[in-house]
Specification:
By secondary structure, this protein is an alpha+beta fold. It contains eight helices and seven strands.
């Protein structure tokens, strides 16, 4: 099921990848079934959820270059994994939850990246507090979060202009998010990594 109110950046349907949600209920509506969760005993808030995607290996359009490239196999596993870990933006124990959910081991020099920027979500008034995790290499994590990278620009824009209301329940990955999820450094300033990778996203 697709959130019709959410921007999808002109991407083909096989690249509509949810990365943030307004609630656990919205994850179950638009992403998949919650298999296990970590719940705060005091507040009752779900801090982490293991989600079984309702559309693993989404149908791949034959005219989308990514699905004909050498990245196709890893891209399917990274973007459309059957099992995904989603966490509350303020939950510090996300790595432990990822391990507790028996997800594949995190390789050396890899970080669990909150695909949607946490600071931006907080500055948006916690509009979409549940974020998908994705393991990425150290260089990708550093590049994406750099003050002159895409996330830094997003934070600066929100700080300067405020955050418009968000009627959508889901945030879908934009080309920069997809670049990170493919374990490619987005770059800084002109975002050359995104520039060079997004040619794979559009027919």
């Amino acid at each position: 099921m697709i959130d019709p109110a959410a921007p999808r950046f002109g991407l083909p349907p096989s690249l509509w990848v949810p990365i943030a949600a307004a609630s656990i209920a919205d994850i179950e509506t638009y992403v998949g079934h919650v298999l296990r969760s970590v719940v705060d005993p005091a507040s009752g808030r779900v801090n982490a959820a293991l989600v079984e995607s309702s559309s693993p290996g989404a149908a791949k359009e034959t005219n989308v270059p990514l699905w004909k490239s050498p990245l196709a196999s890893s891209a399917e596993q990274r973007l459309h994994a059957l099992k995904q870990v989603w966490v509350h933006v303020d939950y510090p124990g996300y790595r432990q939850a990822y391990i507790q959910f028996a997800m594949p081991p995190i390789p050396p020099d890899y970080f669990l990246d909150h695909v949607q920027n946490r600071i931006a979500i907080r500055r948006r008034g916690y509009s979409h507090p549940y974020l998908r995790l994705c393991p990425v290499h150290r260089r990708v994590n550093t590049s994406g979060g750099h003050s002159f990278g895409g996330e830094g620009m997003e934070k600066e824009f929100i700080a300067s202009h405020g955050a418009p209301p968000s009627p959508n329940k889901i945030i879908y990955a934009d080309p920069m998010d997809l670049t990170k999820m493919l374990d490619i450094a987005p770059g800084t300033q002109v975002l050359d990594g995104v520039r060079d990778t997004q040619r794979l996203f559009y027919p």
